Predict the 3D structure of the following.
Amino acid sequence: MLKLTKKDQIFLMVLPPAAILVLYVWLWAFPAHSEYSLLKSHVAALGTEEQLILRRNGIAEKLAVEKNILSEREEEMAAEAKDEAIATDRALRLRRFCEVVLSSGGKICTTEPVEEFKEGSSTRLAFSLLQQTGLPQPIVWKIAVEASFPQISRMLYELNRQNLPVIPESLSMKNLDGNLKTKAWTITVCL
């Protein structure tokens, strides 16, 4: 059997702890130190506390500006949608009015908006009544209809019965040549 010298015994006694120390440094301390250095460089790149606060305030201001822009765009889109809804609603009210005229037996000759009209009391009253119901600025329409008197009276009754947001403003009549029953009626309504 081989005898170990004192030097060999000391070497074998020191070798396992030294190996463990080298493995510890190699497997844990170096990676931890490099990770710590990496984190330290990231924190240093972010800046000081004052710079972070300034950056945070800048981001908050930018978000507030973007939020204001977004809300303005939403308001514009809502206004456009409301304008489209108003136009659609006006067209629907005119169509429903024309359906009432046709269901009463009348024949619609022309429908045209009145651009210029007399600012009489009946027009102002009609406008104020329609605006009190929440409707936008009404349009005055001049509608020419061929119908007999009973058909016109049935049409006015139906308008009243159906509660359409239509205010008849004026009604005028002309005789048609050669026809005693059917007359040419011009109805001015606020829609």
